[in-house]
Specification:
The structure is a single chain. Helix content is 68%, strand content 0%. The chain is mostly helical and 251 residues long.
């Protein structure tokens, strides 16, 4: 699922990202109460898959600023990234109000619901977020994955194509679309899409990695099998309703 600690742009090169994180870490160590430094540092840690450390940074900031909704939102997202879903839910509930809803918090709440298998509830969060931020690609991407987890791959593809068509769509959004295309056996389309971000050789390797992900994940393999059975015509009786999976994986 897409969603991050803050909106700051990060270096795309891993070595540059590590240097950036080290610089932010030094700034944070000098003043752990520096809100902008802590938020940016947690974001960089998340990008380096150091989610437990990102949670620790945000937890300290939340103790310092317990009423700051921006801080609570970032803390809740960090908890969600670290898989601490119950804690994330409790924090995110305090990070916005019905009078002033935050679309990014709603999107994260939706991703948590999806990871818990509550796909109908998740789509409710996404649809509310899209009313606030129409055509936001990260929310559309999460919504598309939610349809995929519910084994509705055509609707997932339609939603992810809309997400990928937005000017602000990034590689993660296109990667999620490539996954859904691959789940339907559209490997060449998935590879063509990957070439927007990768060389032809890397795009081919990327699709091979997606194939491996599907083959090794019980959830994605079940979705692929269930969707195939649902699409196959049956003479004796209609297909039974699809059962949703319980996974919030993000590439």
């Amino acid at each position: 699922m897409t969603g991050s600690v803050s909106a700051a742009r990060l270096p795309s090169d891993e070595d540059a990202l590590r240097r950036y994180a080290d610089e932010l870490g030094q700034r944070y160590d000098r003043n752990p109460k520096d809100k902008s430094a802590a938020l940016a540092y947690a974001k960089a840690l998340h990008a380096l898959d150091q989610n437990a450390q990102a949670v620790a940074v945000m937890q300290g900031l939340a103790i310092t600023y317990p009423e700051d909704m921006k801080v609570l939102a970032a803390y809740g997202k960090a908890l969600a990234d670290a898989g601490k879903l119950q804690q994330a839910t409790e924090v995110l509930d305090k990070a916005h109000t019905p009078e002033r809803p935050d679309w990014s918090v709603l999107s994260t709440q939706g991703s948590i619901a999806d990871q818990l298998g509550n796909h109908d509830s998740a789509r409710g969060y996404y649809e509310t977020a899209l009313k606030i931020r129409p055509n936001e690609p990260t929310v559309l991407s999460n919504l598309g994955l939610s349809y995929a987890l519910a084994k509705n791959l055509p609707r997932a593809e339609e939603t992810l194509r809309l997400a990928a068509a937005q000017p602000a769509a990034d590689r993660r959004v296109r990667q999620n679309l490539a996954l859904v295309l691959a789940l339907q056996g559209k490997f060449q389309e998935a590879e063509d899409l990957s070439r927007r971000d990768l060389s032809p050789e890397d795009a081919a390797q990327n699709v091979a990695a997606i194939r491996q992900l599907i083959s090794q994940s019980d959830t994605w393999r079940e979705i692929q099998t269930g969707a195939t059975k649902k699409a196959r015509p049956r003479v004796a009786a209609p297909s039974s309703p699809a059962r949703a999976g319980n996974d919030g994986s993000q590439l």
